[in-house]
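thread from #wetlab-drylab

HS: before we spend reagent money on co-crystallization trials with NDP, can we at least see a predicted complex? here's what I'd submit
DV: go for it
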Amino acid sequence: MEYRRLGQSGLRVSVLSYGTWVTFSEQGDFDRALQCLDIAGRAGVNLFDTADAYGGGEAERLLGLALETLGWDRATYVLATKLFAGTRDCVNMRQTLNRKYLLQGIDDALDRLRTDFVDLLYCHRPDPHTPMEETVWAMSDIIARGKAHYWGTSGWSPAQISDACAIAERHHLHKPTMEQSEYHLLARDRIERDGAAIHRDHGIGLTTWSPLASGLLTGKYAQGVPVGSRAAVRGYAWLQPQLCNVADNQRVQQLQAVAQRFGASAAQLAIAWCTRHPAVASVTLGASNAAQLRENLAAAALAPLLNDQTMRELDALFPAAVSAD
Ligand code: NDP
């Protein structure tokens, strides 16, 4: 496994990480979680990603229990969670980055995760209703109190991240270290335009999500929604129109043809492609079972084999919507 520096920080994260959205909550199963974490750990994955939003805290709970059961040395892995959604049903505790929620939210998350600190703490979305200064002070205080080692953002614009960096510099606070954005062959701009800019201008490390577009890039939605797949999970029917998009599924067939030349699957090629962006530190995988995870982890070995001609072929098949310049 390759380890990359998370932006300008000194922290090194595995180029493939493992996340828990849907799979550790709505599809949650303790034995499967344990098995998948064990497989990831043995493959060299050192970064595990969750959020208080996933299943209203269920994913954090299952991840915490599984990590405790595995008994890994806490120094050997990097644990990431995110705050914004909230899990308490009262005013000030939902969809916010106010100080009161952030200080309560980290304590609640640490309880569920059964740990004294997370390594990475993200503001899961921007909050237009809380002054940026309040959020930056609160995140910096959480770090100062030892409850998180680095803080970052997810789904923030370059302007919002620049603003946060400027406030932190002005007050000598802890600056944001990382941004987590969607990145896959069908959604390139957030990393190739915005992510690359904040990486260049502020040294922000980039982690990425949904490398398979929730499963679309495996080819599994070519004939409709398979039983047991994410789009069939209760509460996730909203994904069906995009996952069953005919034109995208036709392009995935061409992706499969390219992958076959390497003796690989479309999923492996799609994940390997994500790792090739030089500003990306870690591509966070999702997998709902052990077989998927084993298949996806093998993308690490495929990535160095993708030559310029293959990258150009993929560019032509899945062009970026806007120029990265
Ligand atoms: P993917 O796009 O890779 O989708 C993962 C899902 O696709 C799996 O759960 C599985 O669903 C299916 N799948 C994966 N591999 C295979 C395979 N080899 N063959 C067939 N089906 C496969 O990633 P996620 O959308 O899960 O995102 C990864 C992580 O990123 C999340 O777990 C989360 O930690 C993070 N994330 C962060 C967000 C943010 O806002 N910051 C937003 C979204 C995710 P199934 O078997 O059910 O069909």
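DV: The two ends are 31 Å apart (CA to CA).
HS: ok that's useful, forwarding to the group
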